[in-house]
Design a protein that fits this description.
The two termini are 36 Å apart. The protein is α/β, with parallel strands linked by helices. It is built from 24 helices and 15 strands. Helix 15 links the parallel strand 13 and strand 14. It is elongated. Strands 1-15-14-13-2-10-12-11 form an 8-stranded mixed beta sheet, with helices on both faces. Strands 3, 4, 5, 6, 7, 8 and 9 form a 7-stranded mixed beta sheet that branches. 53% of the residues lie in helices and 13% in strands. The chain folds into 3 domains: 278 residues, Calcium-transporting ATPase, transmembrane domain (Up-down Bundle); 156 residues, Rossmann fold (3-Layer(aba) Sandwich); 134 residues, Calcium-transporting ATPase, cytoplasmic domain N (3-Layer(aba) Sandwich). One of its GO terms (cellular component) is plasma membrane. Keywords: ATP-binding, Cell membrane, Magnesium, Membrane, Nucleotide-binding, Phosphoprotein, Translocase, Transmembrane, Transmembrane helix. One of its GO terms (molecular function) is ATP binding. It comes from Amycolatopsis alkalitolerans.
Amino acid sequence: MPERSRFSLLLVQVAAVLTASIFVLNVVLHRPVIDALLFSLAIAVGITPQLLPAVVSASLAAGSRLMSKRKVLVKRLVCIEDLGDVGMLFTDKTGTLTEGRISFMRATSDEALRWGLLSSDPEGNALDSALWASPAARTADTGGYHRVADLPFDHERRMSSVLLEKSGRTLVTKGAPEAVFDRCADVPAAMRSALDDEFSAGNRVVAVALRRADELTTVTAADERDLRLAGLLVFLDAPKRGAAEALDRLARLGITVKVVTGDNPAVAVKVCEELGLAVEGTLTGAELDRLDDEQLATALATTTVFARVSPQHKARIVGVRRRTHGDVAFLGDGVNDALALHAADVGVSVDSATDVAKDSADVILLEKDLHVLADGVMAGRRIFANTMKYVLMGTSSNFGNMFSAAGASLLLGFLPMLPSQILLNNLLYDTSQLAIPSDEVDPEQLAGPARWDVGFIRRFMLFFGPISSVFDFVTFGVMLWVFHAGPPEFRTGWFVESLATQTLVLFAIRTRRTPFFRSRPSLPLLLSALGVIVAGAILPATPLAKELGFHPLPFAFFATLAGMVVCYLGLVELGKRLFFGRAAPPAGPKPRIENRHLRRRAARFSLRR
């Protein structure tokens, strides 16, 4: 069951048990049934966090505006919170870890350069464009050839071929050196050694091979055989400025980065090493095919680079991680990334990506930069932290109030608070919480992925709720034995005290720091909380008091209340030390909960033919 559904079930269970208990108790004590029913229902309404949808929506809207200013466009508001949950990022290398501006460096022979140009398109992929834009292309002899047919690149063959005609027909094949070498009749040892040197230097390499093919009119994969190696084309895509700092920032946020690329593993490892990303291990697409999902899940923990992978490989890697561990983000910008973007909890693409990739993504970066993505993660965690402030404070305070109401019903000969007063108390309290989305969040709360944990919420409610009840019972004693209050005065005193304590306790609960004033709240939250407390205190002295069943309170009560509030906040601070120190250790990794997120717009699809 999704954690949000479990949270709703928890509220229903608590409300049902306490409401039924309070109703039965009042009936047993021969109170009017209608009064008992209305009182019980008002209590049930009180424990429900009615403003939770509003707080979440306001937080998401504010987060979306903030992220747009930081070059992040959000297509699904709820994915902002999901982004804050992310503990692992799978990303391509090109344009993210590297500059994405590929430049041609050299060819191992003039023949390799000439046939490489003839088998390329000036406006083709990034490698083709870089080759044609190089100074060497201007002086190469490429005239007189006519293209008869071609076979485009695909991720299974990892090469492309063209059939050229000029005094006979020639089949030219270029692509990943390992794949092209396998189709050559002979590969000199010196060429293999040169290839290893280029890969070790972090350069991208394309092999070019050819054969006479007068018999061909079209090109098929079966025709790519018995080739003669013409040479290698060497390209450079330098590590990106600022990428090392961005990787370090993501690491401090508790996000593990894995590189998923179609390049050679040695090239990817070299780039990672230059950026300071420790490489624990590598896996190629061919090696992935030999692993079942359980073995792959184990290998994920010790693998940093996945190289020579296909779109299906990418989607499988992301899918296995989702099923076995925490939330996953995937950053990609090509058609071949669409499957993985769909498979991830949060699909991230860039404004310059293909339409298919952008349609499959949840988040669009206006700049392909990991710093921008880190900003989005921070925004997601900030929203979740503020949402949890409302949830934790509301459930614990309301649970304490219900517990107090049950005790008061047993001890008193009258209703401790009228149903209308309970609802008004709840309305004023919720009003003070409308500014929570604007609140500041402590940096330590943003340091790692945060997820819904109903067990933690339950423990928090059961721990801090009774602390609130203690001071409610102190208020009961003060009203009855010090001020000798009748029912109207008693109800008024508890109304003011409960509103003040449950509103002010926000400033203690909103932070794990002790004392709480080491963490500064936002000005809107401070003003709204103080405004509600003042409104609650002066209500008994207004013309509305009679209609609401209130009675003016003596000044001595407010002096006593001030002392109780100080003691209450002090006890909560002590409770925080105990609770966060021992009672509620950080939760470990949890199994993947399926269907936890809302589905995206685009339907899933396959690139398989």
